[in-house]
Amino acid sequence: MQQEIKPSVIVTHLSKHFTLSNAQRKKRKSEDKILKAVDDISFDLYPGEIFGLLGPNGAGKTTTLRILATLLKPSGGSVEIEGFNLNKDSEEIRKRIGFLTSELKLDNFFTPDYTFDFFASIYGLGEERRKNRKEFLFQKFGIEEYRYKKIGELSSGMKQKVSLAISLLHDPSFIIYDEPTNGLDIIASKAVEDYLLELKEEGKTIIISTHIMSIIDKLADRIAIMLDGKIAYLGDAKDVKDEGGLENLFFRLYEEKEGKR
Amino acid sequence: MRRIFAIIKKELRRFFFDRRMLMALFLPGIMIFLVYYFVPDIYGASFNATYDSSYEAKIAISDNYNLNEDKPSLIETEVSDNFNKLGYEVPTFIEFNINEEETIIDELKLGNFDLVISFTDDFENLIFDPTISSKPNIKIYYNSASKESTYLYSFTYALADSIYSSYGINDNIVPDVSEKNYQALQVVAIILPMLTISMIFSTTLQVCPEAIAGEKERGTLSALLVTPLKRSELAIGKIISLIIVSLVSGVVSSLGLILSLPRLLGNDSLTTLGVEAYILLFLAIISVVILFVNIAMCVSTFAKSTKEATSYLGPLLVMFMIVAMLPGILDCSNIGFAFVPILNISQVMSSIIYGTMDITYLLLSFLTNIVLSCAFVAIDVKLFNVESIVMRQ
Questions:
Q1: Residue pair A250/A223 in contact by the 8 Å Cβ criterion
Q2: Local structure of residue B41 (DSSP, 8 states)
Q3: What is the mean pLDDT of chain B?
Q4: Tag placement on chain B: N or C end, fewer CB within 10 Å?
Q5: For chain A, domain boundaries
Q6: Is B87 in CB contact (< 8 Å) with chain A?
Q7: Is A109 close to B10, i.e. CB distance below 8 A?
């Protein structure tokens, strides 16, 4: 069924290299001047699916997501999002994506209410739509009570909820989330997970990167495991179960890479 | 345009609703006023000091005040009577021929006289004659480097004003010339540009790193970079808002300067320099504010943290202070210096104080700073498009 649908995101031979300074090389205990953060990866994403990206720290997950979010330019390969080329049409792509990462913060000085309005004006949302989206998302993530408090005064969980609401204010068709349940309690995490499933039902394309395997297990339709900038595994979630479960698969791949098997 | 406007609104809100930022914006102006207002006391003698009652003052007075009768002038009688009443040593009045006025003024500069009063011919007869059309005049010269001379000037000025103004010809008889002390002016001409420039730059040093490098550091810049906002829009929005913020601070600094200058120059009247001079001074400050914001913006865009940006801007401040002092020490009035940023505005300020302002020099200086500012805007927009710089964290 899935094969009949045209992919909304096409990643082809994507690479991202960083030039390391002497200090960085020393810190990494490496002689290599170039760090291949993402090394020739290819995958497609489809509307109405959740794609889970898994990997240890430094595997290249966040770099991949940052490239998809147009924050970083690829060193090689190509990315096409909903028919737009990442290098040429980044502004068009940014209108269509909702991006969330722990490194991306909201200004502590402002209130969630003001921040929402500010980003709505950047996205060009009209008065009526802005109001409706704000009411809907604030209610969805339980922000109403805190809407006039400064973001700096909110708990980390509430900040994450505000970030989630902001990332979705323009109703993006491609959602890129790096650790979306970071800092959230079990109830809020559940609410986010449920909402992601709702968004999937609406036909959104969703890519999630997280350390929490249970989230990937629960939500993802397809899974990619990244190790050292490369995709070590790419397959359907149901196939992972045949491999003995996600955790087993992940550690088996990891140990193979480390040469322990 | 809508997105640039949104950025400007957000930035202005950020600065004008933050108490710490408000302090940074308005404190320099208040400091300029306080420092300049009290500096004269530090320099002591020149300004507004108390008068020693036993001081034996010598006042030179031109002998042409009454061509028909041989009697002391009204002003001489009034000064003597009032000094007597106050219990002060009565000044000695020494008459001189009006043709020797220039020599007498030189004597005043040397300290041989404390005050020089000169009249137009037959002043005291003509002033009380309501039928004459050409008004007579009185000039009171003093030396602002001497506290006695300054005090005598204020005292005599007030008396002359009260005696002659009652005859309805006040406008022409009040003293219209005062001889400023060159040394005192020189001190002001060195201090004023240096302090003003350093205080204005201190403001940009507070706001610019916070607005760019601070956002990088806090991770809030990335949140903007994933929106449809163009990086050039972000840069321009930031620059415009920071110019507005710094201009507000610049206006406050200018006000501080305008209110304190008369006292700094040894006269408590705001008309010491004239309205045009204040407007020119304000223009000079505006151009320097715009330039500073754009320099600080480029540095802040390049830096990865507020601390790093401040560490780059700190030495620049010292360099600017040194450059700003130069026109007070060296002759930088050559038109070529109008093309040297910072120095040009410092020279403009000095020349305004000396009363030797050249409008061509000012316009060229203003243009130089604006052209340079535009170049920095272009550099900043470029920096915003360099991934390794804008994503530095």
A1: no
A2: H
A3: 79
A4: N
A5: 2-101+178-258
A6: no
A7: no
Instruction: Show Cβ contacts of residue B390 under 8 Å, excluding neighbours closer than 6 positions.
Output: B216, B221, B225, B231, B301, B383, B384
- Are the beta carbons of B222 and A108 separated by less than 8 Å? no
Single-letter code of the amino acid located at A226: M
Enumerate domains of chain B plus CATH numbers.
Answer: 2-43+182-390 (no CATH), 58-143+145-173 (3.40.190)
Q: Which of B126, B150, B153, B152 is nearest to B137 (CA)?
A: B126
Mutate to test the interface with A, among B3, B15, B220, B304 (most CBs of A within 10 A): B220
**Residue A225 to residue A209: CA distance in whole angstroms:** 10
Q: Which pLDDT band, with edges at 50, 70 and 90, does B50 fall under?
A: low
Q: How far is CA A130 from CA A108, A134, B186, B230, in A?
A: 21, 6, 61, 21
Rounded to whole angstroms, the Cα distance separating A44 from A209 reads: 15
Q: Give the N- to C-terminal CA distance of chain A in Å, as an integer.
A: 37
| CA dist list (Å): B55 to A171, B84, B179, B269 | 86, 13, 21, 26
What CA–CA distance (Å, rounded) separates B105 from A131? 77
A34 in reach of chain B (CB within 8 A): no
Among B212, B226, B231, most A C-beta atoms within 10 A, so best to mutate, is B226
- Gyration radius of chain B's alpha carbons: 27
Structure tokens, A94: 């940014």
Angstrom CA distances, B382 to A78, B215, B300, stand at: 24, 18, 13
pTM above 0.80, yes or no: no
Q: What is the ipTM of this complex?
A: 0.84
Q: Whose CA is closest to A174, among A100, A73, A76?
A: A100
- Partners of residue B3 in chain A, C-beta under 8 Å: 121-122, 124
Please judge whether B222 and A121 are an interchain contact, meaning their C-beta atoms are less than 8 angstroms apart. no
Contacts of B218 in chain A (CB under 8 A): 105, 107-108
Estimate the crossing angle of helix B343-354 against helix B275-302, to 10 degrees. Answer: 160
User: CB distance from A168 to chain B under 8 Å?
Assistant: no
CATH number of A2-101+178-258: 3.40.50.300
- Token readout for A62 is 């966040």
Evaluate whether A34 touches A18 at the Cβ level (below 8 Å).
yes
Mean pLDDT (whole number) for A97-111: 85
Model confidence pLDDT, tens digit, residues B129-139: 777 767 777 88
